[in-house]
Amino acid sequence: MAPTMAVADSKAIAAKVKEEEELRKKNQELEKELKDSREREEQMRKELQKIWERLRVAEEAEERLCSQLGELEAESFNQAGDYNAHILSLKDKLSKANVLVNNHRSPAPISIL
Question: What distance in Å separates the CA atoms of residue 55 and residue 63, rounded to the nearest whole number?
């Protein structure tokens, strides 16, 4: 083999070795990026699961609050009706008392109850 061919062959071999090293290095970088990406994906999946759980809890709380609000509205409606009936009763008693006072001009005391 001629010396120039041997030099050319050694340069080609060195270039291939260098190319293989660069490819290995690039492959390692890509594998690390893939690993990091999978870890981020798993972390995001866990975070999403936590958010779904918090959403479920919030929806249940909203349902309970709506139910309680409905009960309070019904109770306040009933109380307002009772209060209105009491006011009407007092108004009626006051009207009767007023009629008694106006119709009775004697010095004797009057019972309005």
Answer: 12
Measured CA to CA in angstroms, residue 105 lies from 62, 99, 102 at distances of 64, 11, 7
Per-residue pLDDT reduced to its tens digit, 103-112: 876 666 666 6
* pTM attached to this predicted model: 0.54
| Residue 10 in tokens | 């050694």
Task: Quote the pLDDT of residue 5.
Answer: 62
Alpha-carbon distance of 74 to 82, in angstroms, equals 12
